[in-house]
Amino acid sequence: MLVYLNMCGFMFFSGLIVFASKRKHLLLMLLSLEFVVLALYMNLSISLEHGDSEVFFLMIYLTMSVCEGALGLGVLVSMIRACGNDHVLSFSSLW
């Protein structure tokens, strides 16, 4: 179990490093955020299954992460329609 938790921690921090490296495309930033969400989901599922806790919380977490992904894609589509590309620095209201 410790190997899986270490793998989840590595996934989490690698996703944060990619996000913090200020990529120029919004799609890459959204993908790194989804990678962080996936790592947190794996960590939660391993922890809740090991502790014999209620796993209904995982369904709530998945629902919130799907809503976050849909919201990010909506922002991406509106940005591409307004600016013509998904470069983060060309969209003045983000910075």
TrEMBL record:
Catalysed reaction, written as an equation: a ubiquinone + NADH + 5 H(+)(in) = a ubiquinol + NAD(+) + 4 H(+)(out)
Class of the enzyme per the UniProt entry, highest EC level: translocase
EC code(s) of this entry: 7.1.1.2
Record GO biological process: ATP synthesis coupled electron transport
Membrane topology per record: Multi-pass membrane protein
Superkingdom of the source species: Eukaryota
Membrane-spanning intervals of the chain: 26-44, 56-77
Keywords: Electron transport, Membrane, Mitochondrion, Mitochondrion inner membrane, NAD, Respiratory chain, Translocase, Transmembrane, Transmembrane helix, Transport, Ubiquinone
Signal peptide from the UniProt entry: none
UniProt keyword Calcium, yes or no: no
Coiled-coil spans in chain: none
Subcellular compartments: Mitochondrion inner membrane; Mitochondrion membrane
GO molecular function: NADH dehydrogenase (ubiquinone) activity; oxidoreductase activity, acting on NAD(P)H
Entry-linked Pfam families: Oxidored_q2
Main location: mitochondrion
The keyword Acyltransferase appears for this protein: no
One annotated Gene Ontology cellular component of this protein: mitochondrial inner membrane
Recorded family membership: Belongs to the complex I subunit 4L family.
PANTHER family: NADH-UBIQUINONE OXIDOREDUCTASE CHAIN 4L, NADH-UBIQUINONE OXIDOREDUCTASE SUBUNIT ND4L
Task performed by this protein: Core subunit of the mitochondrial membrane respiratory chain NADH dehydrogenase (Complex I) that is believed to belong to the minimal assembly required for catalysis. Complex I functions in the transfer of electrons from NADH to the respiratory chain. The immediate electron acceptor for the enzyme is believed to be ubiquinone.
Protein name per its UniProtKB record: NADH-ubiquinone oxidoreductase chain 4L
Top-level taxonomy: Eukaryota, Metazoa, Ecdysozoa, Arthropoda, Hexapoda
Gene label: ND4L
